[in-house]
Amino acid sequence: MSSVSGALTETETVEMAGEGRLRIPGQPSAARPTRPARSQRVGDRGSRNSICEWPPSLLSVLVVAVAAVVCYANSVDGHFVFDDSEAVVNNEDLRPNMPLWNLLHNDFWGTRLTHNHSHKSYRPLTVLSFRYGWWNYWMSEGLKPWGFHVTNVLLHCLVSVLSLLVYDRLFGGHSPRAALLSALLFSVHPVHSEAVAGVVGRADLLCALLYFLSFLVYCSAVSIKGSFHQSSLVILSMGLAALAMLAKEQGITVIGLCSAYDIIIASRIHPSSISSFLYKNICIPFSKKRRKSVNGFWDNGSVNSRVSCSDEEEGEVELAALRPLWLRHFAMLMTGIVILLLRWRVMGSIPPTFQIVDNPASFSDSFIIRILTYNYIFALNVWLLVCPEWLCFDWSMGCVPLLNWRDPRVAAVVTLWLGIAGILWRVTTLRSSPTHRSLIMSLALTVIPFLPATNLFFRVGFVIAERVLYLPSAGFCMLVVLGVRQLAVFSNAKRLLQLGYLYLVVILGVRACWRSSEWRSEKLLFTSGLAVCPLNAKVHYNIAKNAADSGNKTYAVLEYTEALRLNPEYDQAMNNLANILKDERKLTEAELLLRRAVRLREDFAAAWMNLGIVLSSMRRHKEAEESYFTALKHRKKYPDCYYNLGNLYLDQQKYEDAYTAWRNATSLKPTHTVAWSNMIIMLDNIGEMYRAELVAQEALSVLPLEPSLHFNLANTLGKAGRFAEAEKHFSEALSLDPNNSVYYTNLGTNPLCVLYHRWKKLDKAETLYKQALSLNPGLQSAKDNLALLYKTLINSGRH
After folding, report:
1. What processes does the entry annotate via GO biological process terms (predicted)?
2. CA–CA separation, 73 vs 120, rounded Å?
3. How many whole angstroms separate alpha carbon 163 and alpha carbon 182?
4. Based on C-alpha coordinates, what's the Rg of the chain?
5. Which of 44, 134, 144, 636 is the most exposed place for a label (fewest CB within 10 A)?
């Protein structure tokens, strides 16, 4: 409690300085205080020449680290949920056999950046972190999500600890306890749940880590003496900024934060002076007033010790002191331009395309509606930081209806801007002081990282995404601590404030634990979304998809129907609902849904393929073939479509066409087991035993542990009379899948086609039949064959 008390009553260093504003030439100025000696440069930098000028105490580090881990530890045993499936499980770029070069050409989801459907999210560093490391390898039992979750929790812990140094810098290096309180709030804030508990949030965590490192290196650069060392650190800082952008796009905004720190903290320039200074020194560069206007620009301790000279000579001296500031900003500007140009080039010089359901406000034709909705979304983001109760995995599709002037939610927009106006007024009118500068930097850390999500520069593919608040929340936590500290200064209820802060930390921590537990499974996650966004069709869609995957088709149909009621043009819901109806043999209804889906989105390859499956089931083979070809036109690398096309040709007894289609499927996806199996079975059935054996051996070279391939090869070898080899592969199939009753049955089938009957090992056949029936008592083929076996034994006098 002592540390909290000390932070809340922490006093500021008194500065004998004026307002720190630009003195307009021609106006009388007050006598300026003597500036410090040359060795004590801007921001008390004389002895601050390393990145970690204030080494946080071991206790501070432990408190923040433990809080960060405890709040999100329960997500470690969670599954892959929501976007994790596309970004990790189904992302071909994560396969060890895929070339690393692909990471430089594909987006975060594994789609080519030049593809029409790419979201242009270029994050190769994040994808690389998914691909490598002992925790991410494909193991014998499959891809393990726990390794990804452990890494995310550890990264959040590291970022939280690193925030101690960042806050120390932003507080001016004189408030270690305030830095601790801010870092503690940051470590437990529930809005981080999506970034930490969701594997996809790795992008935000890596970006934040590199973001903070870039900022700290830049802080060290402006503190150090010597142009070579300073230049080296600035270059290193900009390199880390580029890496942050390779983790996630908002990483580039660290350049803006570095600029704000350089001006506000390091150079101690008052915001009200900036516009006047730029006008006098850039817009009128050849005016004689240019040099004089610099006088009074700095507040106390900004340049070298004052010398006895004329106003014009003094202006030259102070302009010389400005030169490093300009050079650093020029370096940052050029870095930003180069990074953005390279990013644009990598994207194929084409902006991303999104659907209207992803961000409805950005597609509105009304300028007023767009502006009002955008501002209401800003207000919601602020509310999520203030009261993180309304947390949802997805905010699209009607979750935030568009606003007009008569909407009562406009009150939230007015409240937001009244608050912003009040803060800006305080920022521009308060005299320069450590608290004043910290206030500005807390606002900068809140606003600058959030800028890419504002729709001001380009359209984004979401309405609200809690993970993008990971960095802005750092500024918000600092703002809260500043407010509490000011209340402590002007209030006698310090003990009450201390208890209030501790209560806030506990409440946020409990909420973070609860929310991270909801990210452990899709069922919990999707169900939690209903309480926040009941009008969001995507929430109902995901609930339906989860229900269908778990076998609850009835509930899935109800939720898909509700999703379509909320969004009648939801083509993905139509496609999935049609698949369920197809399985229930409601083919006409399925066809209507799929045709409607492809009318809404002509390049919807999955819907075209599913339409082909439905038409094939209805024996409309020609139309089915046309649907498959249309799907392949829109998605050339589509192994599942080739597989279904092969099935269509098999139904028509076009065996070579079927073989070619399945070959295309396995060429695109060598692990396509059912395509390999179909080739083997078809060649076996048409009497081409040699080709069937070759295909089976080729398939096993790719999938040596696939029991169905061993089983099909054993059948082929058994028909060819190669019983010993057949028994070997049958046994291999059984060892790989010992609970498959079909394997036992086929090992002992009738005398014409089964191994042990042909081999006259009837005792073994009987044993296998009984094992099959013990696994599946209702297996009729096993009962029939066992009865036939007993009949054979009786006839032979052996029973």
Report:
1. endoplasmic reticulum unfolded protein response
2. 32
3. 8
4. 34
5. 134
- 598: nearest Cα among 565, 561, 627: 627
What are 528-534's contacts with CB under 8 Å, separation 24+? 528/391, 528/392, 528/393, 529/392, 529/393, 529/394, 532/390, 532/391, 532/392, 532/399, 533/392, 533/394, 533/395, 533/398, 533/399
With contact defined as beta carbons under 8 Å apart, do 17 and 30 qualify?
no
For residue 237, what are the CA distances in angstroms to 217, 234, 243?
5, 5, 10
Contact predicate 667/698, CB 8 Å: no
Half-sphere exposure for 158 (CA within 13 Å, toward CB): 16
User: Which residues, 6+ apart, have CB-to-CB distance to 596 below 8 Å?
Assistant: 571, 574
Question: What's the rounded Cα separation, in Å, for the pair 342 and 349?
Answer: 10
**692, amino acid identity:** A
Tokens in use for 468?
């993008």
Half-sphere exposure of residue 495, counting CA atoms within 13 Å on the CB side? 0
* CA–CA dist 499, 488 (Å, integer): 12
DSSP string, 284-340: STTSTHHHHTTTT-B-TT-SSPP-S--HHHHHHHHHHHHHHHHHHHHHHHHHHHHHH
139 forms beta bridges with: 142
DSSP letters, 517-546, are HHTTSHHHHHHHHHHH-TT-HHHHHHHHHH
CA distance 560 to 186: 38
Cβ neighbours, 10 Å, residue 794: 10
Please name the amino acid found at residue 297: F
How many whole angstroms separate alpha carbon 416 and alpha carbon 704?
Answer: 62
At residue 576, what is the residue type? N
Q: What pLDDT is recorded for position 192?
A: 95
Q: What is the dihedral of CA 674, 675, 677, 678, to 10 degrees?
A: 110
Nearest to residue 255, comparing CAs of 325, 336, 326, 165?
Answer: 336
Give the number of other Cβ atoms within 10 Å of residue 188's Cβ.
Answer: 25
Instruction: Find out whether 558 and 589 touch, Cβ atoms under 8 Å.
Output: no
What does the block give as tokens for 281?
Answer: 């020194």
Amino acid at position 307, single letter: V
Lookup: tokens for 348: 């194929």
DSSP string, 461-514: S-S--GGGGTTHHHHHHHHHHHHHHHHHHH-S-HHHHHHHHHHHHHHHHHHHHH
> Can you tell me the distance from the alpha carbon of 432 to that of 704, in angstroms, rounded to the nearest whole number?
72
* pLDDT reported for residue 763: 65
- What DSSP character marks residue 199? G
Measured distance CA(305)–CA(603) in Å, rounded: 70
* pLDDT, block means (10 residues), the chain with 799 residues: 44 37 37 40 38 66 95 91 86 79 84 78 89 51 77 95 94 87 96 94 95 95 82 93 94 94 86 68 50 42 39 47 81 92 84 80 88 93 93 86 89 93 86 87 94 86 90 95 86 84 94 93 91 90 92 93 93 95 93 95 94 94 95 92 96 94 94 94 91 93 91 85 81 79 50 46 66 68 69 61
First to last CA, the chain: 87
Where along the chain do its domains lie? Answer: 58-274+355-514
Residue 632, both tokens: 């392949």
> How far apart are the C-alpha atoms of 429 and 794, rounded to whole Å?
107
**What DSSP string runs through 46-88?**
TT--STTSSPPPHHHHHHHHHHHHHHHGGGTT----TTHIIII
